[in-house]
Amino acid sequence: MMQLRLHDALSDIDAPHWDALRPDGNPFVSHAFLSGLEAHGCLRADYGWQAQHLALYEGTRLVAAAPLYVKGNSHGEFVFDWAWAQAYARHGLAYYPKLLCAVPYSPVPGPRLLAGSGGDASGRQRLLRDTLVEVARSLGVSSVHVNFAREEDAAAFDGSDWLARFDWQFHWHQRGYRDFADFLDALTPKKRKNIRQERAQVARAGLRCERRRGEELDEADWRFLHRCYLATFEEKGNHPALTLPFFRHLGRMPGSAVLATIAWRGNERVAAALLLQGDGALYGRYWGALEHVPGLHFEVCYYQGIEHCIANGLQRFEPGAQGEHKLARGFLPARTRSFHWLADAGFRRAVHAALAREATALEDYHAELMRHSPYAVSA
User: Fold this and answer.
1) Whole-angstrom Cα distance, residue 18 to residue 109?
2) Which of 17, 258, 269, 324 could lock 62 by a disulfide, CB 3.0 to 4.6 Å apart?
3) Is there a domain that residue 101 lies in?
């Protein structure tokens, strides 16, 4: 017999037991990352987040789990369902609260239904899927959403009432490049020339970039990284939810997960990006600059990351959500997946039809993007 428990803090679950259920080394579903968000003031009720982590036990042994939150809004999710909420409101129905199985503020594909990788992992994933619906019904919420699920986990939702949705991000892949120059040689002459010009702009501005791992960062570095993060959010008029203590916490995560790229002019820091590393991949996360320098964003956020991947044997670089400008810099469209269960059958049918239309448009969009591939030979 499986026993269901909902935990309102991840600290209630032992880290080794949670992490043993991860099927890969994705750092965002690690106990350290998720519990750090809670412990350092990033997830608060007035931000619309309430943890209700789902855990299934056989006796006292944790056998399956999912990071789960009761949401009072759709902020910090990156799979946009604002139109669904508006449709509910027009019909006098409440869309919020809803349940979200995801990593807060992190549009990074990865495992969501944590069931390990051996034995009947797929069966436990389907059990988690069904249990999410049971929890939603018991709480009386409108819906459940599993955002940025892995491609490998899609089968867990087959043959169910869950609606599948997809979108595109832009990812870079290591295809045997020996160094950055070798990568450039794979591009069309125009794209190669543009990247060289962008890097030259940064050099002419008197800036140099360095990469530091988390354990190499001092207090001044952490304060600057967080200052850059705040500057970017303030510039865009968004709410910066991540705190300086959480940034410091990232530097203490096991496995040297943090990589910082810092741009300097002399002894002064000018810009920085904070990235995470794990499972053979690099993940771009938070960036900011104290002054505008042409090409600086691309250098700090993309080119330094590509160089790091080539030098350290990483096979994939996911620089973040959205951004067609990434295509010209070697990042090709990669499919991201989400799954959605809506309690109201009428709305479920309407959303299903809308998603079918959306999928057709997104496939056309992908075809158009690939017509503008930056690679001389199709990648």
Assistant:
1) 18
2) 17
3) yes
